[in-house]
Design brief:
The protein is mainly β. The chain contains 4 helices and 10 strands, in the order βααβββββααββββ.
């Protein structure tokens, strides 16, 4: 189901299901992240659901996004993001120990980040401008802090890989959908893919 107009980067709260027909395969990225073949096959066969709670922390006044992700037949994961670009440690059964940071980001900031001389290229997070491509950027999408239209989530894993996600909305087959453009990198290898979600409730 397409995302309702009330769902924006400023309010992603609700239940979403990964649409595997519309999304790109995640198997190449999971392989680069060191996930074994049998587990990758289980993930690829599972229905992946995310329950999102987005809110402003009462004390810090910073936006937080808590995500509980479940894949049918597999253990669930919990991700707590604070959108202040501070690095925080996290560990789960699938990816092990990682350090992650997140924040709202504008389209112009995103373009600069992935440009040929941008930080993401210099640091080996990406090898192209893929993260900045295909987004809806109208006024109705600019609902994050300071009118920004995306969230960036960047993870550095103890296992040696980076994963960088941009969240927002795109026109997919004539419908407005919540999408994550993702790049996983390790050394000189890069995997880029889209995760496209159906809104459930």
């Amino acid at each position: 189901m397409a995302a309702p107009a009330t769902k924006t980067i400023g309010d992603l709260s609700g239940k979403w299901v990964l649409n595997k027909t519309l999304s790109d395969p995640t198997d190449p990225a999971l392989a680069l992240q060191g996930i074994g073949w049998l587990l990758r096959k289980g993930i690829s066969a599972a229905t992946v659901t995310i329950a999102v709670k987005q809110y402003v922390d009462a004390s810090s006044k910073v936006t937080r996004i808590d995500v509980d992700q479940s894949a049918s037949g597999l253990s669930s994961t919990h991700e707590a993001r604070t959108l202040d670009w501070s690095s925080r440690s996290h560990k789960d059964w699938l990816f092990g120990a990682v350090e992650g940071r997140s924040k709202f980001i504008s389209s112009s900031e995103l373009s600069a980040l992935v440009a040929a001389d941008g930080e993401a290229r210099k640091e080996g997070w990406v090898d192209s401008a893929f993260l900045s491509e295909d987004w809806l950027e109208g006024d109705e999408e600019q609902k994050g802090d300071e009118g920004k239209s995306h969230v960036i989530s960047h993870v550095k894993a103890e296992a040696g890989w980076f994963a960088t996600q941009i969240w927002g909305f795109q026109n997919i087959g004539g419908e407005r959908r919540h999408v994550r453009n993702v790049v996983v990198s390790k050394g000189d290898k890069f995997v880029s893919f889209k995760m496209i979600y159906d809104f459930v409730e």
